[in-house]
Amino acid sequence: MPFTHEKHKLNGKVAIVTGAGRGIGKAIAIAYAAEGAAVGCAARTLSEIETTAAEITNAGGRAIAVQTDVTDLKSVSRLFNEVVSAFGGLDILVVNAAKTYDHRTVVDSDPEAWLATLDVSFIGAYYCMREAIPYLRKNGTGKILTIGSGLGHNGRAATSAHACSKAALWMLTRVLAQELWDDNISVNELIPGPVTTYSGASYASKAQESVFDVDSEWVKRPEDVVPMALFIATQPNRGPSARSFSLLRRDD
Questions:
Q1: Tell me: the pLDDT tens digits for 1-18?
Q2: Where are the alpha helices (DSSP H) in 140-184?
Q3: Closest to 210 measured CA to CA, from 230, 189, 227, 196
Q4: Are 2 and 60 in contact (CB under 8 A)?
Q5: What is d(CA 18, CA 66) in angstroms, rounded to the nearest whole number?
Q6: pTM of the predicted protein model
Q7: What is the pLDDT, as a whole number, of residue 27?
Q8: Sign of torsion, CA 194 20 224 90?
Q9: CA nearest 106: which of 140, 157, 56?
Q10: Of 29, 160, 231, 252, which residue is 20 to 30 A from 86 by alpha carbon distance?
């Protein structure tokens, strides 16, 4: 469907969204483009981000797909260079790329898989945030949005890798917000809560597999996260920073 908004909230902005090939990242990339932003779509699976970029351009928006391994600093640097070269700058970074995790206790966990989760979800986030700073400072303002988790604030048994990676990301978000306050760059966290990309009966089935109590929690589709992601991206230059915006009904 063509983008037909009469007043674009992100007109002239340039955004990079990691993990943009599916789920929350794809939904945010498309939504930002619909509001006028040029979007750099990043992920390891090239075919997926090419699909996202094509959906945007076919609807009249601007986007490029840049295959990126966020655990590789050179790959991350190339992402930022290509997006800035294509669109002339950078205004928004959405740190969404993360590794899925097994529901295992610490004693039953696979150390290699445990560390791989932190490598993508935290170290990869650090690389992206660090690389974004010079470009945002050049603009004199900007926004960094990290996709967090309630488990990063409170934890839960058998989620240690995911919970620890998101806890570390939340602390990095807070520290970086303090470091960049004088640069008019805000750094905030969005906690979406449980999100599934499935539909119909499969959606309901997968929701029941969540670590959350779905009887009392709002199990969302990626598009349900978009309004908050747009809200954060459109706040004033000296607006909220070091904040956690949560879509959870419960403090999980």
A1: 666 555 799 999 999 999
A2: 151-154, 160-180
A3: 196
A4: yes
A5: 10
A6: 0.92
A7: 98
A8: positive
A9: 157
A10: 231
